[in-house]
């Protein structure tokens, strides 16, 4: 892996942990984090040893406290629009073929919440706080929040978060379906890594196709979605991993998937 200034990447067996490393700024997303995040995910996508990625924030207080507000000064509508036309960390996560888990360890605000929403699963610690506080700055979210949050938690709840900018706690986020699991702070890493490793042992192509199918569900109507699912299901039958999975079941042993 290359060396980065604002992020670190650590490979632990089949799981890569990508940490946003600006704890003194509560891991706020500046342009450099976006650039480096895109580059790191590109490397991890091509690395066959890596089957699952976990994204987290450095330090004790925050996952990500949003976009770096200090970069907003002097921005024009055109420069802001251009920013989102370039490849952003959000799009790279959204289109990443392997499972990505957000391990949320504190403030998960604005662009941080949008980044977590682009991930496949969200696991948080008990003290975590979630918000789309852009409204307090006289703006709104631009990293997919209004669309992904609404699809995930429903219009009424998303509307309240977007219009008030107020924080919700981990328990409420769990009740809303915004996070999959909540754990005490000291168990967060262990529980997240257990889940990541469990997924990392599954068949890589089937994981990728499953992700594609689930993501397509909120981007299509039911008939299109059902047709896409059958096509993806059929592709599984062309893989060596399907032969291995079925053989292992019949021979009463653990399968060894190779991603072929
Ligand atoms: N952009 C830039 N810097 C940020 C930031 C952001 N989104 N969020 C926090 N920081 C910086 C602070 O400016 C401060 O830097 P400094 O020590 O150089 O002054 C440092 O991170 C620590 O934050 P601080 O505000 O002192 O911590 P706190 O515990 O008192 O408050 C928050 C925590 C999250 C409530 C508060 O930092 C906050 O409201 N941040 C902005 C959240 C936001 O609006 N995000 C959406 C942006 S669109």
What global shape is seen? Answer: globular
Count of individual helical segments: 11
Q: What's the end-to-end separation, in Å?
A: 24 Å
- Largest sheet descriptor: 6 strands, mixed
Task: Give a brief rundown of this model.
The protein has 11 helices and 10 strands.
Describe this structure in words.
By secondary structure, the chain is of the alpha/beta class. The chain contains 11 helices and 10 strands. The strands form 2 sheets. Strands 1-2-3-5-7-10 form a 6-stranded mixed sheet, with helices on both faces. Strands 4-6-8-9 form a 4-stranded mixed sheet. Helix 1 links the parallel strand 2 (about 15-20) and strand 3. Helix 4 packs across helix 5 (about 145-155), helix 5 (about 145-155) crosses helix 6 (about 155-165) and helix 9 runs antiparallel to helix 10 (about 220-235). The two termini are about 25 Å apart. The model has no long low-confidence stretch (mean pLDDT about 95).
């Amino acid at each position: 892996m290359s060396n980065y200034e604002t992020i670190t990447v650590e490979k632990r067996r089949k799981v890569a942990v990508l940490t946003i490393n600006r704890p003194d700024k509560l891991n706020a997303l500046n342009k450099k984090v976006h650039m480096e995040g895109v580059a790191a995910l590109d490397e991890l996508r091509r690395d066959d040893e890596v089957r699952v990625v976990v994204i987290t924030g450095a330090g004790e207080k925050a996952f990500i406290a949003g976009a770096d507000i200090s970069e907003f000064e002097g921005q024009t509508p055109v420069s802001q629009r251009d920013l989102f036309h370039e490849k952003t960390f959000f799009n790279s996560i959204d289109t990443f073929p392997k499972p990505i888990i957000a391990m949320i360890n504190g403030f998960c605000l604005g662009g941080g919440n949008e980044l977590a929403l682009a991930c496949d699963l969200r696991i948080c610690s008990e003290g975590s706080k979630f918000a789309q506080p852009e409204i307090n700055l006289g703006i709104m979210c631009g990293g997919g929040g209004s669309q992904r949050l609404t699809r995930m938690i429903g219009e009424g709840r998303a509307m309240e978060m977007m219009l008030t900018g107020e924080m919700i706690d981990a328990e409420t986020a769990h009740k809303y379906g915004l996070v999959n699991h909540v754990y005490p702070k000291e168990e967060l890493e262990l529980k997240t890594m257990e889940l990541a490793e469990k997924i990392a042992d599954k068949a890589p192509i089937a994981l990728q196709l499953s992700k594609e199918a689930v993501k397509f569900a909120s981007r299509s109507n039911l008939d299109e979605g059902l047709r896409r699912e059958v096509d993806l299901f059929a592709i599984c039958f062309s893989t060596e991993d399907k032969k291995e999975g079925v053989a292992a079941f019949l021979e009463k042993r653990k399968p060894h998937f190779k991603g072929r």
